[in-house]
Amino acid sequence: MKKTLLFTLMLAGFLDIANFFMPAPLYTPLFLHSSLLFGYSEESKSILLGILVASYGAAQLFAAPIIAECSDQYGRKKAILVSLSIAIFGGVLAGLSLSFNWLTLVFISRILIGAGSGTVAVVFALAASNSSSDERAKNLGYINTGLAMGCVIGPIVGGYFVQGDSGMPSAYAYPFYFMAALYFITLLLLLKLLPLDQPMRKGDKKIHLFTAFHNLWIVLKRSPYLRYLVLMALCFQIGSESFYLASPILGVKKFGMSASELANYFTVLGLIGAFTSSWLNKIVSQKYQSSRICNFTLTLYVLTMGCLIIAVNRSVFFIPFLGVAFLGVLTWVHTNNLFSQAVSEKEQGLVMGVSQSLWSIGGMLGTAFVGFVAAVKYQGVAYLPVLFILFSWIAVKLMIKNFKV
User: What are the CA-CA distances from residue 94 to residues 113, 152, 179, 376 (Å)?
Assistant: First the structure.
């Protein structure tokens, strides 16, 4: 594969993840402290914040399987170019909505960005199909590096590209314009560098809006073990995704943190998370089974998340971020491995797609829960990640006990 094409595919994967993490330090001060929702009650602001962040996961849940199916039936180049175009439009619309203080367009833009974010699977497929057998593993590793960098740089863009008076919604528009520009550059590069590929199959599977739920139902019917695994993964994702909104709310409300200060916490999370997935995971995986690793990491994960509840200063508040970076990353890597081990080779795409859907559902439900709880009492959001991670730990305990894995 040409280095320019490999770099562009890395950039596409980077943008997919960066666009998820970029608003993490941005949306909470925007909704709670700027004039965007002037005249709204504090309760309404929290509920709308939760709905906004949840809309990304909802859009991704419906759109990602459709993009994946279209890449098989109409060609990967066409699918990824359409997906990137949707993300560009969503990013520009997000910037305009804040520049002109149009609340409705803030929500529409986030839905579009979520719908255009399901490109990771297509990026991996393109990297694999455009690589020789000797360089395939190496090139896929580069794509993973791009994803890891998205976790690191996304929060920096969201926290440090806010301009001028942070009380004005227009000050928050610049990160979205910047991301839209990067998407546009990536689209132009892929348009030039990617060869037009032939469809892998034509019309043998109907594409519909509820593909994700259909595939989830197939997996749930497959075996009791998979039902436990889905429950464990869903609770884990709800707990982890609720943290991504609960922690900024606590940081802003309890410690008066700015967007750039929150960005520092999320950037460290991304850096350590990249280290965990690339190096620490290799060491742990060689010594222990995935079920045992999940049991151990979830035990510690509950304890570190508990620091959200008892945080009296910023040092204690930082502990859950370390928990996500070390324990959360290891848990999700080995949860995916458990999914992979539970089915045959020909069903790997199905079960990995379900894993992706559970991430989207977790993002949708977890952040919506946070918004509604924050409307009642903002301190209550600290309990949600702890509660759902505890449920996940109980599920893995029962799984190990009943199935001897």
Answer: 9, 22, 10, 28
**Mean predicted confidence (pLDDT) in 65-84:** 85
Q: What is the count of structural domains for the chain?
A: 2
Please report the pLDDT score of residue 203 as a whole number.
56
Report d(CA 395, CA 228) in Å as an integer.
6
CB neighbour list of residue 60: distance below 8 Å, 6 or more residues apart:
114, 115, 117, 118, 360, 363
Measured between alpha carbons, how far is 174 from 297 in angstroms, rounded to an integer?
38
**284 and 392 both lie in a single domain:** yes
Is the pLDDT confidence value at 142 over 90?
no
For residue 316, being part of any structural domain is answered with yes
3-state DSSP helix/strand/coil percent for the chain, to nearest 5? 80, 0, 20
pLDDT of residue 196: 79
User: What is the rounded CA–CA span in Å between residue 184 and residue 181?
Assistant: 5
Same domain, yes or no, for 235 and 166?
no
Domain housing 164: 1-192
In a domain, 123, yes or no: yes
11 band by pLDDT with thresholds 50, 70 and 90 = very high
